[in-house]
């Protein structure tokens, strides 16, 4: 077995150990705002923008009035780790304020996926 094949096998065998846990956001109902909340937590900015366009709601209305599990949608996206969408939404919301703090010691703490049910209003 060549050194490259050994390296490939080692990487493939160890890759499941290196995968970090992530939260999975599941819509609690079929409301448009709930779909926007799930998208704000998990999707790329372009996918969120496409959903926003199809929702018929303006980006400013979404940023100011949509609540996800009792939180502003921008703050919800930020808490979920989707900082790109959070920054875009919070630029449109004059009352949004947040501070970015990274806890380096907390890395690798969780072992499995966590399912979070989301409800938007």
Question: Can you characterise this structure?
Answer:
The protein is mostly helical and 121 residues long. The chain has a domain at 29-95 and 111-121. The protein is 51% helix and 12% strand. The chain has helices at 3-18, 32-42, 45-55, 59-65, 73-80, 83-91; strands at residues 23-27, 67-68, 71-72, 114-118. It has a two-stranded parallel ribbon. It is globular, with a radius of gyration of 18 Å. 24% of the residues are buried. The model is unreliable at 15-20 (pLDDT under 50). Keywords: Signal.
Please give the structural blueprint.
Blueprint: H1 3-18, E1 23-27, H2 32-42, H3 45-55, H4 59-65, E2 67-68, E3 71-72, H5 73-80, H6 83-91, E4 114-118
Parallel strand pairs: 1-4
Antiparallel strand pairs: 2-3
Helix pairs in contact: 2-3, 2-5, 5-6
Keywords: Signal
Protein name: DUF3718 domain-containing protein
Pfam families: DUF3718 (PF12514)
């Amino acid at each position: 077995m060549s050194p490259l094949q050994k390296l490939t096998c080692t990487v493939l065998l160890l890759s499941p150990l290196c995968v970090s846990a992530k939260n999975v956001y599941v819509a609690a109902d079929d409301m448009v705002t709930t779909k926007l909340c799930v998208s704000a937590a998990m999707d790329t900015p372009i996918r969120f923008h496409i959903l926003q366009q199809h929702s018929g709601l303006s980006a400013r209305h979404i940023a100011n009035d949509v609540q996800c599990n009792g939180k502003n949608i921008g703050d919800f996206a930020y808490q979920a780790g989707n900082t790109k969408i959070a920054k875009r939404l919070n630029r449109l919301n004059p009352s949004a304020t947040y501070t970015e703090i990274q806890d380096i010691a907390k890395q690798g703490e969780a072992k499995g996926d966590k399912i979070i049910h989301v409800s938007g209003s």
